[in-house]
């Protein structure tokens, strides 16, 4: 496991998993929100965002977390492991609100980007119905050579991280 793409709904635990996995694998971690937005929340143009990801995936080791379905193909074609944080809608909603309470609003520089508004709540609430099928289709189409890991809850995530850590020892 050298190149890992972590995807899933907001609030699912992608950033936490990516940080822990990067530590275990001794691999650089990139949170795509930090690459896509500047400090004033201005978005990078799509072509430049794709170029940034192509540079990232050309590296020998990496963990990249973020959905960004429009550019998911770049990561999926390059990864050896795909992790889908496949938590329930209730768990994801809990995740965005508890993160807001723990970290406050705004960009924290560590992959934590808290901006809860109606659009974010609606996206999280509808993720399993609208976005998950699109992510799964792209995983199947572009990630054919990669191992797939589906993590349905935080307990399963912690268990998987312990297993990966034991395998690296």
End-to-end C-alpha gap: 13 Å
Mean pLDDT level: 89
Major β-sheet profile: 5 strands, parallel
Helix and strand run: EHEHHEHEHEEHEH
Number of DSSP helices?
Answer: 7
Specify the overall morphology. globular
**Percent of residues in β-strands:** 15-25%
Question: How many strands appear in the DSSP assignment?
Answer: 7
Strand order of the largest sheet: 2-3-1-4-7
Helicity range of the residues? 40-55%
Structure classification: alpha/beta
Low-confidence regions:
none
Radius of gyration: 15 Å
Give keywords.
54% helix; 5-stranded parallel β-sheet; 169 residues; alpha/beta
Give a description of the structure.
Helices cover 54% and strands 16% of the residues. With 169 residues, it is α/β, with parallel strands linked by helices. Strands 2-3-1-4-7 form a 5-stranded parallel β-sheet, sandwiched between helices. Strands 5-6 form a two-stranded antiparallel ribbon. The chain is globular and about 40 Å long. The mean pLDDT is 89.
SSE blueprint and pairings:
Blueprint: E1 3-8, H1 14-25, E2 29-31, H2 32-36, H3 46-57, E3 62-65, H4 72-78, E4 81-85, H5 89-103, E5 106-107, E6 113-114, H6 118-142, E7 147-151, H7 154-168
Parallel strand pairs: 1-3, 1-4, 2-3, 4-7
Antiparallel strand pairs: 5-6
Helix pairs in contact: 1-7, 4-6, 5-6
